[in-house]
Amino acid sequence: xxxxxxxxxxxxxxxxxxxxxxxxxxxxxxxxxxxxxxxxxxxxxxxxxxxxxxxxxxxxxxxxxxxxxxxxxxxxxxxxxxxxxxxxxxxxxxxxxxxxxxxxxxxxxxxxxxxxxxxxxxxxxxxxxxxxxxxxxxxxxxxxxxxxxxxxxxxxxxxxxxxxxxxxxxxxxxxxxxxxxxxxxxxxxxxxxxxxxxxxxxxxxxxxxxxxxxxxxxxxxxxxxxxxxxxxxxxxxxxxxxxxxxxxxxxxxxxxxxxxxxxxxxxxxxxxxxxxxxxxxxxxxxxxxxxxxxxxxxxxxxxxxxxxxxxxxxxxxxxxxxxxxxxxx
Length: 329
Known about the structure:
This protein is an alpha/beta fold.
């Protein structure tokens, strides 16, 4: 991974990283932690990468601490239902959130009113990578690269599948419309599987998503034309990135991720212990299996690197969303 991209990925937004309990109270609360099951609330349906990382973490946590870790899926409203549930939970180290960086970064400018403050009410813990996303088009579309697709989309009305509002695909669709002049509308699906099925069937002309989900329809009505990020998808080495095709602007070269966050005020040592579970488990067989399946070469980030990512990368994403003028309410 190029050093410039690595520096970007290792940075964004420490605004929510600092709030903690008073030292005495924190020590008293965390001394016996964990003495009951913890809960991870996932902002999306089961089956995707966010859910996969959450369930892997739950297994690793239970193995390390001998305490149950429950995963609860609360999809909907651009992950805001899940975020609200965690933001309003007690900061005692027993409730955590797994979602996308788009939900906890861009949502602050994509929604005019939220029942929580994303800068103050949650704090980052760790950041799982998502790897390059695949840009795939229906084989009914006569395009084999990004330029050819844009030429087609300037003359024909097209739809682009996304797996969530405020997601990277959603922002790319708006970029294509506003910067490239494409006649393109976003369609938000409840998961990647139905999105890619519609691309394969020609009901949707283009989509962007994980390699694993794309691989299920590759050569079955869908062809890849690009990848997001600054390096090629390891499973598709012959497919150039958007950046290589001088496409997508800064947005196309960005990497997102799948962060775990906690209610602001959660004791520092608990945050550190949670992050360490993921870091220590990164080379375990199940973690390697997920990385292989989703074509992810990047490492999970621990607490300090995630806070650095919160400082440096999130402002870039937020500016991109602001510049596009996307509003979801």
